[in-house]
């Protein structure tokens, strides 16, 4: 938001997802967030590495944000550092894809119901056993 942190993706994202988990609700102040999973090795931090702060919840992906303005930037899997997703709202250009699924729909609040848009829905994390 403030421009202190800049990154680039060398390849288009591998997919976009809506997340309705309680943590995303509290982090964003909304009913869901949208993230784009990056292709491993395609993410590069160009400017502002010293501004990046990271919250480690202990039971989920690490949440990184700009320490100057608080803008949510990306999230990383602590068990596999190559798995990184950027917050779609931080992209300068159209990612060229639309969201393909809803995850953690079991936590969607009554005031922000999951839309009937035909996308696959997962009660917890997509792809979790």
List its traits.
glutathione-dependent formaldehyde- activating enzyme (gfa); two-stranded antiparallel sheet; seven-stranded mixed beta sheet; 1 helix; 129 residues; globular; mainly beta
Question: What does this protein structure show overall?
Answer:
The model has no long low-confidence stretch (mean pLDDT 95). This protein is globular. The strands form two sheets. A seven-stranded mixed beta sheet has the order 5-6-7-8-3-2-9. A two-stranded antiparallel ribbon has the order 1-4. It has a single domain (15-107), classed as Alpha-Beta Complex (glutathione-dependent formaldehyde- activating enzyme (gfa)). It is built from one helix and nine strands; from the N terminus they run E-E-H-E-E-E-E-E-E-E. With 129 residues, the protein is mainly beta.
Write a compact overview of the structure shown:
This protein is mainly beta and 129 residues long.
Give the CATH H-level superfamily. glutathione-dependent formaldehyde- activating enzyme (gfa)
Mean pLDDT: 95
In CATH terms, what is the architecture? Alpha-Beta Complex
Structural category: mainly beta
Question: What is the tally of beta strands?
Answer: 9
Low-confidence stretches: none
CATH third-level topology: glutathione-dependent formaldehyde- activating enzyme (gfa)
Molecular shape: globular
Q: What's the gyration radius in Å?
A: 14 Å
Strand order of the largest sheet: 5-6-7-8-3-2-9
Distance between the termini: 36 Å
Residue share in β-strands: 25-35%
Structure annotation, total helices:
1
**Main β-sheet, in a few words?**
7 strands, mixed
- Order of H and E elements: EEHEEEEEEE
Helix content: under 10%
CATH class term: Alpha Beta
């Amino acid at each position: 938001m403030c421009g202190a942190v800049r990154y680039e993706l060398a390849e288009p994202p591998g997919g976009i997802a809506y997340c309705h988990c309680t943590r995303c609700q509290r982090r964003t102040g909304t009913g869901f967030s949208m993230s784009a999973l990056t292709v491993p090795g395609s993410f590069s931090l160009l400017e502002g590495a010293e501004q990046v702060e990271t919250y480690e919840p202990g039971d989920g992906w690490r949440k990184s944000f700009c320490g100057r303005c608080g803008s949510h930037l990306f999230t990383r899997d602590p068990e596999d550092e190559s798995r990184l997703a950027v917050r779609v709202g931080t992209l300068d250009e159209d990612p060229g894809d639309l969201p393909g699924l809803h995850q953690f729909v079991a936590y969607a609040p009554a005031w922000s119901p999951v839309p009937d848009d035909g996308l696959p829905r997962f009660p917890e994390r997509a792809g979790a056993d």
